[in-house]
Design a protein that fits this description.
The chain is of the alpha/beta class. The chain has 10 helices and 10 strands. The radius of gyration is 20 Å and the shape is globular.
Length: about 350
């Protein structure tokens, strides 16, 4: 079964064709990073306008690269939430129109479920149940993937997501956008032991996380040094900050594995591209004798291939949307039925 998918939840306009939830036939991503860089972050209104301008071209290229017409795809999947509401509405309305005109089934997909499903492309042998660490700009979750469409959140960040903390810390250090990428590069040159940052802990919730304190600690360190006229070793600040965040993420995942007895782990989201996080997860999983799925870098960011992959399994579960499908800005990953997107 071949599914055409559309993703427009933030600042990437993407479309892809994927077969049976595992094989990528085509994948096109138009990124707006260069335009948003001058603002130091994504400007929602600009993102929405660029999606409007690019979505037809991107979808046409995905079909062309797949050497297919719309009549040759079996269904259309689209990210319906969560994300920037204006950006989501562009993709949802385009997909609704395309589905109506072509007579194809329309499948709403939860964005974070899509990130998890990137692992089905990266590791074709991967099947639920397994645990997944989701670490992105907007979400930090430990998810028990019980089946392709039944998911349970075991732990989450109580405030900032890990990716948000990376970007804000990078911004306070005057690094470029996207900050997480620049921070990762500089951390390779620093001494992780030179600066100490608070370890996040949530009383009574061992799998939950908190990253606002670490972010504030970095901001205060930089502010105090500036007031005193002191020169900070920025690469070492990056290294110490990165270690603290990555240790928090990995410790929660492996603690969840011990609690549940899970033998298979995966990671998803933009932060899963971080060099230290990937190395730590691989090393610790090997030490514990656990299987680990790590998506390639091109699948860690927002893309439509992951949406098509999850869309296939949502279709098999009967999750077909009607004309009242809407976009939603926030929605738990535990929800994914069409009615959940009709609020």
């Amino acid at each position: 079964m071949r599914i055409l998918a559309i993703e427009s939840s933030c600042d990437e306009t993407a479309a892809a064709v994927v077969e049976d939830g595992r094989k990528v036939i085509s994948s096109v991503v138009h990124s707006q990073i260069a335009e948003h860089r001058i603002y130091g972050g994504v400007v929602p209104e600009i993102a929405s306008r660029r999606h409007v301008e690019k979505i037809d071209e991107v979808v046409s290229r995905a079909l062309s690269d797949a050497e297919m017409t719309i009549n040759e795809v079996d269904a259309i999947a689209v990210t319906a939430g969560p994300g920037l509401i204006g950006a989501l509405l562009v993709g949802v309305n385009f997909a609704k129109g395309l589905a109506l005109a072509s007579g194809k089934s329309l499948i709403p997909v939860h964005h974070i479920r899509g990130h998890i499903a990137a692992n089905y492309i990266a590791s074709p042998e991967l099947e639920p149940p397994f645990l997944c660490l989701v670490a992105s700009g907007g979400h930090s979750l430990i998810v028990d993937v019980k089946s392709y469409t039944e998911l349970k959140v075991l732990g989450r960040s109580r405030d900032d997501a890990a990716g948000e903390a990376f970007d804000k810390a990078a911004r306070s250090m005057g690094l470029g956008y996207p900050g997480g990428v620049e921070l990762d590069k500089l951390a390779r040159q620093g001494d992780e032991t030179k600066y100490k940052f608070p370890k996040p802990h949530v009383d009574g919730a061992p799998l939950d996380m908190s990253f606002s304190g670490i972010k504030t600690s970095v901001v205060n360190l930089i502010h105090n040094a500036s007031q005193k006229g002191e020169q900070l070793d920025i690469p070492s600040v990056c290294a110490g900050f990165e270690k603290t965040v990555c240790d928090a993420l990995t410790s929660r995942l492996f603690e969840a594995a011990e609690m549940t007895g899970a033998k298979t782990l995966s990671v998803a989201g933009g932060v899963s591209a971080n060099t230290r996080l990937r190395a730590t997860l691989e090393s610790e999983a090997k030490k514990r004798g656990l299987k680990l799925s790590l998506p390639p870098l091109w699948l860690t960011g927002d893309n439509a291939a992951m949406i098509a992959a999850q869309g296939y399994f949502e279709y098999l579960a009967g999750h077909i949307a009607k004309s009242d499908l809407n976009a939603v800005a926030t929605l738990s990953v535990e929800k994914g039925a069409p009615e959940d997107f009709c609020v």
